[in-house]
Structure formats: structure tokens, C-alpha cells
Amino acid sequence: MTSSDVWDDPTAERYDADSAEMFAPGVLDPAVDFLAALAGPGPALEFAVGTGRVALPLAARGIPVSGIELSAPMVERLRRKAGGPSVPVLVGDMATSRAPGRYSLVYLVWNSIANLRTQDEQVECFRNAARHLAPGGRFVIELWVPPLRRLPPGQLAVPFAVGDEHLGIDTYDLVTQSSVSHHYRRRPDGTLTHSAGRFRYIWPSECDLMARLAGLELAERVADWDRSPFTSESESHVSVWRLPSAATGRRG
């Protein structure tokens, strides 16, 4: 059983509206450009495909895209969209579920690997990505760098969004590497709602070790989809690992 939160029907119904900033062309287009260049003619597989924010525009470029998604209500929203029925989606856990075939690209965006709240599951997610890759294929994740330097002694919370309609605060447990993202939203009817998502944060170096355990080697790390250099001040990273061409028999 996965430790991930499972998006229920009401949450899935609000997901696109609550995440509208992530659908903006300035945010989405660079991600799709980056992934399309790596996928080539494909095929590509998205772990935690959700409502198809990335999968659908990538498929619209002619790349065969499949997905794995834990939440059936999220998949139902994807199915309602233009092009959605043509994207095969397996409802299951991205750490263990096996989609048919081999892929030139497996990708996992917008911090979604952190939905797996144990280190063991995160290691298995890397291994599952490697199992799906054709020799020479790439595994890509987009992930935030925990802003722990912004935590004064004794403080456990960091705001990440402050606005009239949305206040977001992350709380951290430095012992377990767990965090909770709290979202307070003002709805159009004036009501206030609170929701929370639970995560396990991962450092870039820890990701590299997980990749090595899966038989993958680091190919590239940048700060964002625009390929800004990754530095000690970067608040996020886009990392690409490659399955060596001679590694066919090493996938576990």
C-alpha cells in the first residue's frame, strides 16, 4: 500500500482551478519543450499523470504518451479533456505499477515524487522508472529544494504563497524529512477552505543515490525547465538520469 495521499473526487474537481498558475504558458511550455526534446519520437510515460497538465500538450506534439496515476477521479478529469481518451492511463502506484512496453522517457513533474512519504517507496519509484526505460532512455524529475535555511532556530514553518485568494505554508519535520503543505483559499463565494498535503522531501544528492541504486546515471541537472544553471541558491531542480545502453540486464 502506498503512503501517498489519494486525491478524492472533490479535490480532483477543483485541481485544475486551484493549480491554474501551473497551466500558464510561461510555466507549462518550457516543461513540454524540455520533455519533448528528450522523448524524441517517444514513447513517453508520466508517473502521477493527474489531469494531464503535461501529458496532453506533449501528446499533442505527436509523442505517444501513457500515464500511471493513483487517483481514479484525477484520471476521470483527464478523460473529459480534448485528447484525454487517447492517453492510456494505468490506475495504480507509481512505485510498483507496471505499464506495458519500454519508453524513451519516464518523467515525474511538480514535486510529485515527494508524495511518496517513505524513503523505501521513493527508491522503488526510481527502480520502477528504470524498469520502464529502454536502454539509453531518460528519467526526469522536477523537485523543489527544501528551503531549510529559511527556518530560524525553533521555527518549523515557511510560507510559499501569499496572496488575497491563496495562502500556502509548509511545515517541516527535520528528523523524518517530512513536510506538510497547508493551503488556505478564499473561494468565489467568500468561504475559506483549508487543505493539506503530506510529503517527504528529498535532497538532490539523495536523488542521485536513489538513481544509482536503480542503475541510472546522472546526465543533467538544471534549476528549471528554462535550463538555468543549478547552484547552491537554486530553489528547485530538474534532473535527468540515463539508463546506460549496456544496462538491459541490471534493472531490478
What does this structure look like?
By secondary structure, the chain is of the alpha/beta class. The protein has two domains: 9-146 and 203-250, Vaccinia Virus protein VP39 (Rossmann fold, 3-Layer(aba) Sandwich), CATH 3.40.50.150; 148-197, N-terminal domain of TfIIb. Helices cover 25% and strands 30% of the residues. It has helices spanning 9-18, 25-39, 55-59, 72-80, 119-132, 204-213, and strands at residues 44-47, 65-69, 89-91, 103-108, 133-144, 157-162, 166-173, 178-186, 192-200, 217-222, 236-242. The protein has a seven-stranded mixed β-sheet. It has a four-stranded antiparallel β-sheet with strand order 6-7-8-9, with no helix packed on it. Helix 1 packs across helix 4. The longest helix has 15 residues, at 25-39. The protein is globular, with a radius of gyration of 18 Å. The two termini are 20 Å apart. Mean pLDDT is 92; it is low at 248-252.
